[in-house]
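ENCODED BACKBONE
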Amino acid sequence: MKIITSIPEISRERRQIQHEKSVGLVPTMGYLHEGHISLVTQARAENDLLIVSIFVNPTQFGPQEDLERYPRDLQHDLKRLEEAGVDFVFTPEAQEIYPTGFATYVDIMGALATEVEGEHRQGHFRGVATIVLKLFQIVQPSRAYFGQKDAQQVAVITRMVHDFHLPVELRIHPTIREADGLAMSSRNSYLTMAEKEAASILYQALQIGKQTFDQYSGKDPKIVTKAIGETIGKERLAKIIYSELRDPVTFQPLKSLHAPALLLIAVQIGQARLIDNFLLQADGTWETGTIALGIATKV
């Protein structure tokens, strides 16, 4: 496994790869958990060469967010990636990605980027889209791998790939969960033992939301969000930030309970801001893993 920190070096390595060989890219911010490793494992199985990026992207953090304390453990990450058979790890510094004078960003318009997570984290998806486009340009992957847990991020990146005709296939992997249903996340490391136990309320609330949705199909979506809010309210350590029902492609709010639908929640527990989601697919079946977006992801 080769560790690369500069754009010119990773570009040189990429140019030397034969055109007929497939290249997989798994973008990460490091502090790897089993969710990341599941992406790496899938990418390793589907590509001739595998590149993993580790970069805590400053442009997707707001001024009051946790950029400085975001968990990091590069040596542990590198050990896990070597064990997983990764060929290249790209670990640039911020100055390498955003040099002095950098002035070009990707702005996603409308509800897709300005509502739900976008409303609470203004500018977040501008930073996400910009770093992902840069990585795609630098690495030129055949396939790129993302987790379903960050459903709105997946929708934003899918939209960008479609709108810019980018020659990359997006592969979206199911959410990997703890035994109690808590979605794996690097920010789970912020939780104390008591808070982690309390965090299982997210999965319980999504299950209640799913059951309510099925029971009241065609009715007002507020029935579902109310049920979720009442469930979260039973856990004294949890503070609900939002519960939403949205179209999984456009992120427009639903006017009635019908498929397809994306059920999303965000909850604050201690120092951790946690998000999760369930998807109701167009055929009426619930999928708590892979999201099936209704626009092309391969050119």
Observations:
- The beta strands are 2-4, 23-28, 49-54, 88-90, 143-147, 169-173, 238-246, 261-269, 272-280, 286-287.
- The first strand starts at residue 2 and ends at 4.
